[in-house]
Structure formats: C-alpha cells, structure tokens
Amino acid sequence: MTVSEYRRDPVTGRWVVIGTEPPRPADFDREPVRLAPDPQCPLCEGHEAMTPPELWVDRSSGGPNGPGWHTRVIPNHAPMVRVETVLDRLGEGLFDKIAGVGAHEVVVESPRHEDTLASLDDDGIARVLWALRERTQDLRRDVRFRYFLLFKNHGAVAGAALAHSHTQLMALPVVPREVQVEVDGARAHYVAKERCLFCDIIRQEEDDGRRVIAHTPDMVALAPFASRSPFETWILPRRHAVRFEDASMEQCRGLAQILGDVLRRLDRALEQPPYSLVIHTAPVAEGHDFYHWHVEILPRVTRTGSLEWATGFHLNPTRPEDAAQFLRQLGPRS
Amino acid sequence: MTVSEYRRDPVTGRWVVIGTEPPRPADFDREPVRLAPDPQCPLCEGHEAMTPPELWVDRSSGGPNGPGWHTRVIPNHAPMVRVETVLDRLGEGLFDKIAGVGAHEVVVESPRHEDTLASLDDDGIARVLWALRERTQDLRRDVRFRYFLLFKNHGAVAGAALAHSHTQLMALPVVPREVQVEVDGARAHYVAKERCLFCDIIRQEEDDGRRVIAHTPDMVALAPFASRSPFETWILPRRHAVRFEDASMEQCRGLAQILGDVLRRLDRALEQPPYSLVIHTAPVAEGHDFYHWHVEILPRVTRTGSLEWATGFHLNPTRPEDAAQFLRQLGPRS
Prior knowledge:
The structure is a homodimer.
Chain A: E1 5-8, E2 15-21, E3 56-59, E4 69-75, E5 89-92, E6 95-99, E7 103-108, H1 122-139, E8 147-154, E9 166-172, H2 177-193, H3 197-208, E10 212-215, E11 219-222, E12 233-237, H4 249-270, E13 275-280, E14 294-299, H5 305-311, E15 314-318, H6 320-330
Parallel strand pairs in A: 2-15
Antiparallel strand pairs in A: 1-2, 3-4, 4-7, 5-6, 7-9, 8-9, 8-13, 10-11, 11-12, 12-14, 13-14
Helix pairs in contact in A: 1-4, 4-6
C-alpha cells in the first residue's frame, strides 16, 4: 500500500497531507456551475443602466455605458471599502485599525450571460487580463494603496454573488497576510541563494516533468508539489517577472492562451467545477524584485474546507502527480 | 454613514475588513444543521461493532465495545495518517516531505444520535473535553508528534462527514502553519513586553467590555477585535495556561460550562448554524510558555469563503461589538 505523505510548500511553509487515492473526479463533491438565463442580469449587454457608470471599457462600437463592448469595468455595487475615505491609521490599545479606504471593482468578462472565462477565445481572455492590468496601473498612482488583490470566484459555491462571469479587483492600504507569508518565503530563499524561489521551482518541475500540466514558450502550468486540494493549478511566467500589472499585451496574450487551455481541461476533468483564481503579484512597495508573479487556481471539489480554513492544515486526497497526468492526457482541445 | 474599517489581529497579523451592517442573522446564508434519524449510524449506542475497537471509553456500565458509555474514542475509519508509519523526513530538491505518520481519532460525544455538543449538559460536555485531554496526554508520549490538532466540524457545510456529533483529534509530526504564525506573534509580543499577548488581550477586552460575550470566574468568551466572520467567538482561560491538555478536571468543567452557554447562544442567534471549533494549544516542544491555549469557534454563515481561503484576506460584514451585544442580550438560558 502506498503511504500518504506530508509535503511542505517551499514558498509559504504550509504543510499538506497528500493522500494516495487515484484522481476519480466522480468521487469528488461536485456542484457543477450551470448558468441559467437571467433577463434581469445587470451585467449583460443592454443592461448597462442597471450598474454604476463604467470606469474603463474596451468597446468596438457604441457610446459610454451602452452596448457594443467586449470587457467593462464597473465599481462593486456595495463595496466594503471606498476610495473617498481618508486614510487614517489608528491604535486602540493593542489593536490596530485603518478607516475603510480602498477600491473594489468588477471586470465584466463578456457581454453575453452564457459565457465563462473558459468558453472565451484567447482574444477574449486577453482582453479581461488587459482590463485588470490597466485598472491596476491606474490605481497604482494612488500612493495609499499597498496591494492589489486580483481574483475570481467562479460559481456560487466559490462565493460568486452574480452568475454572469466576472473578475474582481481590490486596492488595499495593507498587504494581506497570506501575501506577506509568500513574500517572506521568497525573500528568505533569495537571501540564502541569490536566486528567485519561483524560478528555481519552475526549473526543478520542468526537469522532473511529473507535475507539469501544460507549457508554452512563455508560460508553464503546474500541479504544485504541496497542492492544498485536488487539481490545484499554478500558472507562472517562465521568465522572471515581478508584477502582473507590468505585463505587456503580448504577455497577457501568452497568459490567456495557457489559462484558457487549463480552465477548459479543468472543466472537462471536473465537470464545470466552481473554482477560485487569484493572480499573485508583488506588493506595491519597492524592494520586491525577488518576487515572481503567478496565477493560482483552486477548484472547489471537496467539502473539507473547515479544517483548512480554521487551522491552515490541509488534507488533499489526490497526489498532484496524478492530477497533472490526468489533465495532460485530456489534451488541449476544448 | 459609518465607515467600514480594516482591523489587524494582534496575534496573527491578519487584516480583516469589518463592515457596518447590523447583525441581522436572517440576512446570512444559513443552512441550519438538522439531524435526521439514521438507523445505520455507526456512532450510535448499540452499533459499536460497526466501528473499529474503542481506544478510550468513559462508561458507567457494560463491557468493552458494547453499550453503556458516555463518551467513546475510536480511530478514524479512513485515516490519511497512521501511527504505524515510520517517521521518515526526506528532501526532493527544493521540496520537503515526511511519510504519513500520525494519529487521527474520533471522539463520539454522546451515545444518542439526536444530541449535539450544545444540547449536552455541562457534565456531558466536560466528559468530551476530558476525553480529548486524556487521548492527547497519551499520544504525547510518542516523541514523533509535534502538534495535536483538536477540532470539530459541526454540520456537513462545515465538513462533517458523519452527522452524529463528534470531535476529532490529529497527532502530527509537523506544526501547522497557522499555529506557527500564532506562536510567532505571541512570541514577538512576549519578547518585546515580557507579557503574554493573550493575557493582555483579555485584560483590555474585559476593561473595554464591548466585545465580551460571557464570563465565568475562570473563563471569558469574546468576539475577537478582528473577527474573520460574523459571530466568531474565542473562549480563553482568564489565568495564563499554556496547554489545553494540562487542564485539570475542574478546568474542563469550567470550559464546559461557558462552551455550552456560548454554543446555545449561537444556536439561538443563528438558528443551529454549522460551525468549526478548534482548540488552540501550544506545540509539544519545550519553550512555549508565552503561549495561552484557547478555543476558536467560527460559525459558517457566509459563502464568501473563497477569497478568504485563497488569499487570507477576510471581509466580515458584522462588527464584533454588535455580534457580542446580540449574544449578550440572548442571556444564558438554553
């Protein structure tokens, strides 16, 4: 009998128990994301008046806040943080607090309700990535912001409040703790070795091959060594790059190509799973040149979220080597 | 308009955005935990033959693996870690792994299927706590173990695989990352101030009063300053104590009393919510005298788990001051 093992993520120091069950998606706790038509959807083309005015738009016809767009960025309709708030850092005995300054924006990925990020063509996905890049570049001029959280919740199980496919952007005056843990891990490796930790991981994984899902000349998709959940996938640029928001249009197209490929493989393997996707980019401050931006995709296929949520300790029944092989065999076609 | 704010947890450094919505449980995403009778439940009294033999039992009549017990501890039927495995620490290039040595046990809290931890009387809850303490004391003699994870998932939404009320214990050869972050935060405070961080929090919270839910001569229940989700609750011994598993029977009774009170208040406030409960105790190694054991309860009442899971950044719509006031007003009766 193969024995399960503890694995340590070299970036965050997170320990995960990896089981030895073969990757049988039919055994997972699946709630496929199905899109029902919704004539009242505020994010559909033609319904622009149901949302706040657009902050940014990529359109081929029509005028502001009307039809004819490919990608549209609007403010979150009920943001918990606001740009207008004055940055005010206060102590309260042991405690620290800051008034809720920030930005919370929504990138509508397509004018059509029936699209998902996976169903868009490479050009459509590149437009979404470019919108995120452009909005981040714009918000970066506001010196109050220390981190940009770029993320997508696909499906209600993964926390999506609206069914129409969208990605979110939050600009924050703090660095989230998970990001800080990752930055600290990458810095420690750089101090010890004078090499980027992520570049080292890419090199080792490409030499090994067992956990590689797909690659292109510019990008590689991996099942990480210490995957937290079945079919966790990371996409990294093969050449060292610190911040996603400094990517060129060509690099966004390169990411779009492999991201679409990976999402379609996951859709086929896990039957349209809910997932969360986070673009990990370096904090705004100078001095993060050792960091390497990347994308982390976590399909939600188990309900064992509570232990993980409460303790940071993960039990993953599926070996990433097996998940990667499963996804490789599916091939790139949609 | 009251503005939301960022709050930093003084133990872990976690930032949370706290909203200003009044605590209206009816607005939460609720899936009340309802217990359906199950004649095939392996954890019910009389079905002892359906489980592996008991590791520990608190019984007033009958013989081993038969009826007549109050609390019963059995091995997990499908453990991902096993005591029999040889401890073997291996490197693989950048990566670290350990064979899956460990223990995974289940504390059956009551012989009756219809009980929950909240519905037990103080004596029944104290028996559960005592079982956890006794098993941890026993496993502590195995020098391979570095941490004991004591936790409960209540309800399928919170990850409970069996409906019959139970708590789990895992003995691990590693310290989970969240625990390490907490330990590091408590150590930094101790190094700077020569005082226990948790003792300081208790003193400040009791002076302030707004976030105190309940207290007894020995214990206090708080809504933590940087609560991750609505109605998050911590229970701490008021006198400094490093490890839960060193608690006396009297201290277990003291914890049982306030834990039952808090769980019944949460049941009334949130209509039998699913929740996760973790007993945070110090790692096994010497040199953790600055740590202070406590219980953290996280009701699962929002579906915004993905952002939090993937980034460690939390949005909590409810101020802990409002949640604490809501729970205080309910009073202690069940």
